Amino acid sequence: MPFEELEHTADVKMRITASDFSLLLAESGFALSQVMYGKYKREPSEIAVSIEAEGTTPAELCVNFLSELLFIMETEYLVPSAFSLTADETSITGTVSGIPFERGKHSGGIEVKGISYSGLTLTKTNTEYELIIIFDI
Amino acid sequence: MNENIRRTGPVEWEIPQGFVSGMRVPGRFFLSDVLAESIEDGALTQLGNVACLPGIVKSSFGMPDIHWGYGFPIGGVAAFDETEGVISPGGVGFDINCGVRMITTPLTEEDLTDKQGLIDELYEAVPVGVGAKSPLRLSQKDLTKVMEEGSSYAVELGYGMTSDVEHCEENGCLSGADISAVSDKARKRGIPQCGTLGSGNHFLEIQKAEEIFDEKTAEVFGVSAGQICIMIHCGSRGLGHQVCTDHLKVLEEAADKYGIRLPDRQLACAPLSSKEGEAYFGGMAAAANYAWANRQFITHAVREIMVKRFGISYEEMPLVYDVAHNVAKHETHEVNGAKEMVCVHRKGATRAFGPGCAEVPSVYRAEGQPVIIPGSMGTSSYLLAGTNAAMQQTFGSTCHGAGRVKSRSSAKKMQTGDEVAASLLEQGILVKAPNQAAIAEEAPAVYKPSSEVVKTVAEAGLSRIICRMKPLGVIKG
Asked: How far B116 CA lies from chain A's nearest CA (Å)?
């Protein structure tokens, strides 16, 4: 599993790992959508929305990307099935695609209010990236 | 308890300057021995961090429901000098003007012959949970009025009574709202969500006033033993969350620009008189007003159901009061023997103004401001009254709720949602939510006992306990 929930009293703390930075952002996007919608089946995409974000550091880029994704999911009622992203360490562009929110299928989660800098760490080893991030609920 | 923390009274504790490098004032918090067992070191460090911010006045305060939060601890109160001080979104939180209100009804428990039917109908009438859309069709112009006028605009549209507005903190409208400080993104999130409950710890609850502690004040507040009451807990929805996100970015840069040394990045802030600080205040006030309107729209939806089911009138369901518990406000308080305007941040804390304060509605003024403290699904909520001791000690502030002690993941390991619901049913409490996980995550056992929290603020003199309300039916988002 590329992401897992860690212990946190008030909010949701996630650990996300991936072999490259673009994939890390995509998996962090799925971590966010799973918190919001519960575990759901990634169905063939029906809608796609452009997404872009910038940051002065890779960690800040992660926060800004997820904040932008949160905005898209909430306003487009989009449940992500796939990400197509091109990223360097300070910017990202691409698309998030998925299906429209359906109450019967996607009501297993909890609203996320914001993406927190609290306890934010991004580390890179020879083989993978690891992001620890808190979603404020 | 950390050895550097000093006990100064039965429930009073002090964090000395130096506990965190750069503290300008001490930290003070209120905990009983029972609550002290669950205090997190991180929350105390956060109290110390807040004490480092420029212009902080008197102390950085923690209420008995304190726990680790974003920047400020939840349950944190801090006031800042208007000239030297700062404003920080970390002192308000993502959910600007998350708050709670309570209406009374002429009903008793015997009148609730079909409690499940009532819960089901309320659940349909008030959109809850992720992805919920409001039945309201607000235009952009409506949204602007909501942000400028708060609950009174909802009443103007026909969703309530004039007395509702009078019984809200700040009359349901914080002055200084600046619509230009609210982004298009925030507006886009706000339009479809106005009139929705949200999720997490937000709820709509049917309660019974079970125990009256002060008959005289309870009568003034319009509450009597056995009466059915309804409590609504929610905030500014995606609009407020986006306002916080947008301004956090700006204030992070502003802290550098104004040479403010931050012990924690989450305390991003700007001088109150700076353009960045003023813009945040304006956007936050607009979101706070949205939250008051949001609770007003929901109140109306609830009253409509009650009128239809029980044949009672809207006037028979008055709003006792509505309090904000995530907000920053300009208020006048006594500082060093003189009245002074300060910017009070309450983050998971409630205004609790004492008797005689002009800000308290005239009908309640002799008793002090009503303060509503929600419990958890299985534990009681409380109606308190503000005191003059709170005015003197904590800038007229008290606790806001039970305070979480266990994570959501450990909650789900303890009991399933079905088990929690069954246990509550044994106590006569019905619960309904979009998913069972939401019920498990909000199980009563994951919160501090609300009775101990209110007992502590009463012992500290910050509030008087007026009434205890038992939950009968709960809708969780």
From this structure: 21
Q: How many CB atoms lie within 10 A of CB B274?
A: 17
User: pLDDT-derived band of residue B327, with 50, 70 and 90 as boundaries?
Assistant: very high
Q: Please answer whether residues B64 and B98 qualify as being in contact, where contact means their C-beta atoms are separated by less than 8 angstroms.
A: no
Beta carbons of A109 and B238 less than 8 Å apart: no
* Residue B141 CB burial class (10 angstroms; 0-12, 13-18, ≥19): exposed
Separation of alpha carbons B142 and B192, rounded Å: 12
* DSSP codes joined into one string, A28-58: HHHHHHHHHH-S---PPPSEEEEEEEE-SSH
**Whether B286 contacts B243, CB under 8 Å:** yes
In Å, how far are B1, B42, B116, B198, B286 from B37, measured between CA atoms? Answer: 8, 14, 38, 32, 39
Fold of the domain spanning A3-136: Archease, Possible Chaperone; Chain: A; domain 1 (3.55.10)
| A74 part of contact set with chain B, CB < 8 Å | yes
State ipTM: 0.92
Q: Is the pLDDT score of B437 beyond 90?
A: no
Residues of B forming the active site: 400
Rg (C-alpha) for chain B, rounded Å, is: 21
| CB B293, CB B153: distance < 8 Å | yes
Which residues in chain B are contacts of A115 at CB distance < 8 A?
A: 245
Residues A7-43 have pLDDT tens digits of 888 889 999 999 999 999 999 999 999 999 999 999 9
CB contact under 8 A, A136 and B94: yes
Beta-carbon separation of B68 and A115 below 8 A? no
Distances (CA, A) of A107 to B61, B196, B259, B422: 38, 15, 45, 21
Arithmetic mean of pLDDT, B376-396: 95
Which chain B residues are Cβ-neighbours of A68 within 8 angstroms?
none
> Mean pLDDT over residues B1-25, rounded?
94
Mean pLDDT to the nearest integer, B76-88: 97
Residue B84 tokens read as: 């030297």
Query: Does the beta carbon of B188 lie under 8 angstroms from any beta carbon of chain A?
Result: yes
How far apart CA B324 and CA B421 sit, in angstroms, is: 29
Instruction: Report CB contact under 8 Å: A9, B405.
Output: yes
The larger pLDDT score, comparing residue A68 to residue B407, is at A68
What is the C-alpha to C-alpha distance for residues B430 and B416, in angstroms, rounded to an integer? 16
A118 residue type, one letter? S
Residue B38: pLDDT band by 50, 70, 90 thresholds? Answer: confident
